[in-house]
Amino acid sequence: MQKTIFGDKGGQIESFSIESCRHCDERGWVLFPWENRETRIDPKTIHVVHFVPGATRGNHSHPRVAEWLCPIEGEGLLTWRSPSGELQELHLEAQARCVRIRPGVPHAVTNVGPGELILIAARESDPAGDLSVPDKVV
Question: Per DSSP, what are the bridge partners of residue 92?
Answer without folding.
Answer: 76
